[in-house]
């Protein structure tokens, strides 16, 4: 990941936030973020640093160095960062949304950290984001798609078994005759390209920024999906 620095967000500050996040040091993370904001760092730069720290935490979890409690605490810290009054001020007055994203974590998957980061990045890019939450079934996604007519359905799935539930989403939309009215993007799966071919979704994102960029491309180049 590139370190996006300007005259204010220098490399040392960026790396300090990453390190504090990686160690799940809540007070230190909040203190550093507030310092960075006072120095003129953008919201995108802050979230980028937090995400990199979360990436490390995810690797530690996979290696067995961190447990579920650590993941939950990391998620809480991220939410606390987003609630900072100084951070909210950066994102005021964004105007009309450029598109609507229906966001969720797929059936039987209870992870929400990646989903939360994507939501923040999408909101910063001026999307309307409707977050259905975690453990969402294909039928629930279908019902909300019919009701809300999103431009994009963004699905997070960490578990390997998630591919079959995501395929069920695609199949349900096809059966309802509305698959061509919406794009589907998936993030978090370890199967990557093979997941796209098997599930029938439109794209797989390796990180949240790639995912948001793809969503923007669909909107700007193809207009609204519906």
From TrEMBL:
Residue ranges occupied by any B12-binding domain in the UniProt entry: 98-226
PROSITE patterns (UniProt xref): B12_BINDING
Root EC class: transferase
EC number: 2.1.1.13
Keywords recorded for this protein, A-Z: Cobalt, Metal-binding, Methyltransferase, Transferase
GO cellular component, one term: cytosol
SUPFAM superfamilies in the record: Cobalamin (vitamin B12)-binding domain, Methionine synthase domain
Pfam families documented for this protein: B12-binding, B12-binding_2
GO molecular function, one term: methionine synthase activity
Lyase among keywords: no
GO biological process: homocysteine metabolic process; methylation; tetrahydrofolate metabolic process
Name the record gives this protein: Cobalamin-dependent protein
